[in-house]
Write a structure and sequence with these properties.
The chain is mainly alpha-helical. The protein is built from 21 helices and 12 strands.
């Protein structure tokens, strides 16, 4: 029986070295280039290495003899960081260590420039000088570095201070007395997450297109791929060039396509097949990332047969729950990570089925089970032409990112009149934001994807047991609540019964500190425990005793929360940003009233909805006019 590797296997120790280099592979402590032993399957394909011979001023290099003492301390520091994270106490994975090495390289270059040869020579003034130098260094994205970037570099000083007793040359002073590296960098509210979620205007067409490809287009692509395989196999023994093989395959694809003249988006050439296979891989990633929520490393490590069913014997109805079985690697020391299961909506199950079909031949050739096995060079259909086991590897995150960007360009995705750049992290962020919105329409869509019978079930348990994802969702809820309060405190006019109350009681913010005062007051309201619901048609300043949706102490009732119920609720607020929704609501109602065959009861309901929309729009207009007259 095959056993799981719970720890990174230590390579055999060279007699000339010692056990301190246990985390290296095919390299030694004294070598100018360190190659880290892989800690998961992705790192087997893309080993992490760092070079100690980086350039310094006046043509010198860090491997020169004059830097031997400092270099030894730097290697000790990197080894300690690899073995023990200050945050978790667990070993860090090589890619995280590489980021600290980059920060260390910045510090060494600055010390060489200032004539400093030991960390012990640093003091508070030197730390401040380094911070200013670092902040003013130009980057590819702008003339200076952001506070969040600077604070990541400053965290290295915390390691230098905490590990000072284990280093030959540690930091002799507390770099951040009474504060931390975030505050020292000027990031008063902690790290502002640099990874954005995908805006709604981009995410909706993106997910719709991905679902359409996975559910409808995948069968045609896989069939065309099989036609290509057969054509290439038929010419395998002939001494013709690659172009002749491709031409023969193209002719066979055209013949197969002519037999189905009604098919949309035909596959009539090998070039089109190559593109469509890459788009199919991108669509599968989008479906899994945006509708299930794993990280990119967790998606790329999925294996054939990962879709399974679970039966809950304690449930009232013994209906199986379909899950995707995989592993979480973040903050997990083991090679195989921590086993985890994600609830799988039907479209995600279909995406796994498609990936199993795409990888079937590669898995057979290599004897491996990963779903994202791809040829190292060559995309699309050409992957299956004389593929060998040594040419196959798990697709890297950068390769997936490139496919996502091509996918977005093909769909013409834009945000604020500019092309939107898709990245591998956005799906998980968007999933967290989507769940955090607690919007009735969003919850309905999510419940459909998760196969829940009730939206309340989705609202109660949409994140499963993923603690880190729970944290991200809580952070999104906090951010959205603060943004909503800032908007309500500064909007020229508000509609809804609670909106009128807020306008009457809110303080007036003026002067040069207006934005800061608004943010501080909004944070005060959030910290006071005011539950705030956010949806497409307005805000809910929730108070249980006034709840028209019959909510409880925890918050609004998601099963009864809808525009008409909210419109008559004392907790409801409409701001100018919701004006478009209510204009469209009025337009739809007016269109329905022009239907001659509409039943009388339906007409009565439509007129009520139209009056609700007009009332809210008039309140918004009146508030804006009053604000303008005061101005």
């Amino acid at each position: 029986m095959q056993t799981s590797r719970l720890q990174v296997p230590r390579p055999a120790i060279d007699p000339a070295s010692d056990d301190r280099a246990w985390f290296l592979k095919d390299s030694r402590w004294e070598d100018p280039v360190w190659r880290f032993a892989p800690t998961n399957a992705l790192e087997e394909e893309l080993p992490v290495s760092l070079a100690w011979d980086f350039a310094l001023q006046e043509g010198r290099h860090f491997t020169d003899a004059r830097y031997a003492t400092l270099r030894q301390t730097c290697k000790q520091l990197v080894a300690l960081i690899r073995c023990r994270s200050l945050c978790t106490g667990l070993p860090l994975r090589p890619r995280s260590v590489l980021n600290y090495f980059f920060s260390l390289r910045f510090l060494v270059r600055w010390m060489d420039r200032e004539g400093l040869s030991r960390f012990a020579e640093l003091d508070a003034a030197a730390l401040l000088q380094f911070q200013h130098w670092l902040a003013e260094l130009p980057t590819a994205r702008g003339p200076s570095r952001s506070a969040s970037t600077v604070q990541r570099h400053l965290y290295l000083f915390t390691y230098l201070h905490r590990f000072r007793m284990e280093l030959d040359d540690g930091l002799g002073f507390d770099p951040f007395p009474g504060s931390n590296h975030r505050q020292a960098a000027g990031d008063r509210e902690g790290l502002r997450r640099p990874w954005p979620s995908t805006p709604d205007g981009v995410a909706v067409p993106l997910v719709q297109a991905a679902v359409d490809i996975v559910m409808r287009d995948a069968g045609r692509v896989l069939q065309a791929m099989e036609t290509y395989r057969q054509a290439m196999a038929a010419t395998a023994g002939r001494s013709q060039g690659g172009y002749a093989h491709t031409g023969r395959a193209t002719r066979r694809l055209k013949r197969a396509n002519s037999a189905l003249p009604e098919v949309e988006r035909p596959l009539a050439s090998v070039a089109e097949l190559v593109l469509r296979i890459d788009m199919l891989y991108a669509a599968c990633f989008v479906v899994l990332s945006y509708l299930v929520g794993p990280r990119v490393s967790e998606i790329l490590h999925l294996k054939a047969g990962c879709v399974q069913e679970r039966h809950d014997s304690g449930a009232c109805v013994d209906s199986p729950v379909t899950v995707i079985v995989g592993s979480i690697f973040k903050r997990q020391p083991g090679y195989d990570g921590r086993p985890h299961e994600w609830v799988a909506p039907p479209v995600a199950v279909q995406a796994i089925t498609v990936l199993e079909a795409l990888s079937a031949e590669h898995r057979m050739v290599s004897g491996r089970h990963e779903l994202w096995l791809r040829r190292r060079r060559g995309n699309g259909a050409t992957e299956w032409f004389h593929a060998r086991a040594d040419q196959l590897e798990i697709a890297s995150p950068s390769r997936v990112a490139t496919q996502l960007q091509r996918f977005g360009a093909r769909l013409g995705l834009t945000h604020q009149d500019r092309p939107w750049r898709l990245t591998t992290h956005q799906g998980r962020k968007t999933f967290a934001r989507f769940a955090a919105l607690r919007d009735r329409t969003c919850l309905f869509a999510l419940s459909q994807h998760l196969g829940h019978r009730e939206r309340a079930e989705t609202d109660h348990g949409y994140v499963g047991s993923d603690y880190r994802l729970n944290q991200e969702i809580d952070a999104e809820i906090l951010q959205q609540s603060m943004a909503a309060w800032e908007h309500m405190l500064s909007a020229p006019g508000l509609g809804g019964r609670a909106g009128i109350e807020i306008v009457a009681k809110r303080p007036r913010f003026r002067g040069s500190r207006l934005k800061q005062d608004l943010k501080s007051y909004a944070r005060l309201l959030v910290d006071a425990g005011l539950v705030l619901g956010v949806c497409d048609w307005g805000f809910c300043v929730y108070r249980e005793e006034h709840s028209a949706c019959l909510g409880n102490a925890a918050g609004p009732n998601p099963a009864r929360r809808e525009p008409s119920t909210c419109a008559r609720c004392r907790n409801f607020v409409v701001s100018p940003q919701h004006r478009t929704y209510w204009l469209e609501q009025a337009r739809r109602c007016e269109s329905l009233l022009n239907e001659p065959a509409l039943p009388r009861q339906t007409l009565r309901i439509v007129r009520e909805r139209l009056n609700e929309a007009h009332t809210l729009l008039r309140t918004l207009d009146a508030g804006s006019a009053e604000e303008n007259s005061h101005a």
